[in-house]
Amino acid sequence: MYKQIIRPILSVFNQENAHDLFLKLVRFTNRLPVLGSLIKLTHKYEKVELHRELFGMDFKNPIGLAAGYDTDAECLEGLSAFGFSFIEVGSLSCEKQEGGKKPRTVRDKSRRSIITRPGNRNKGIKNAIENLKDRNSSAIIFGSIAPNQSSHKDEEMVEDYCRAFSLLYDFVDIIVVNVSCPNDNGLLFVQDSSSLSDVIDPLLEIRLCYEKHKPILIKLSPDTPFEQIDRMLDYCRLNGIDGVVAGNYSKCSREVLAANRMTDSAFLSGEELYPKSLELVKHIHIYTQGRFPIIGCGGIMSPAQAKEMFDAGASLIQLYSGIEYEGPKLVKRILKSI
Fold first, then answer.
1. Per-residue pLDDT for 30 more than 60?
2. What is the CATH number of domain 2-337?
3. Residue 36 in contact with residue 29, Cβ under 8 Å?
């Protein structure tokens, strides 16, 4: 149904509007008990063998929805009906972010990818918290945090992370610190282990103030050299970070920019990203001797690629572009194949 009816309709709109329209459709169907039940019946696939124990939690299956899909936590119940065992909201900043200049996202159909300008559009953490307070979803919720796009000084970014962490902590199950989020100049906020410790050390201290210990993950970029990745992993394992999300957007090549008539900085997700994401997961798994939880993310478009990502060492995986191109039934197809 998605490929035959919904996607052709959505393709009439630009990528950003099409995505927003699809979320509105999911929210609408979720409000109608008959349609909501039908979606669950046709999309969910449950087997005891699919359960995963990780971070002291029971994941009903190893597939989640990546950050950026439901950035502001507006559609958790409807999206979890498609079979996701966990959903990552965000990346969220303390203040509302308008995002980069339009078009903020562009489809590259020839590469089955999505191109995004830097900007991290979101309505702010306080808005998301109001949605999270009322959530009625069985999915485990990850909350991804990032600095305000206007923050460029180190102390400003650290303050942003700390404030975002403190605000969101009580309303999600797991915190993801997005240290690979590009700012409005297209530069990564955190690029090495020393700047990583500047951000994470205060967050670990803040976590001690809470009665309930919640896992902290960091999100790594597939563009970061492996030597830097190794130093960041050493820091994480020595200081109590619980795992990593590998990876995130990758910076567009000149070829991709030219093909899409873009001249400024932009970032790529989708099938074109998959080889980089797979290599990142493999490297982390080998470097940590399989003893550090990895959530594999980036360009997974098929059951075969999902299996390859698990074989590379991912404990869990996340989908985004695969849902855009293949539809929500991709979750069930993957679950039936593993």
1. yes
2. 3.20.20.70
3. yes
**Residue 184 confidence (pLDDT) above 60:** no
Q: State if pTM tops 0.85.
A: yes
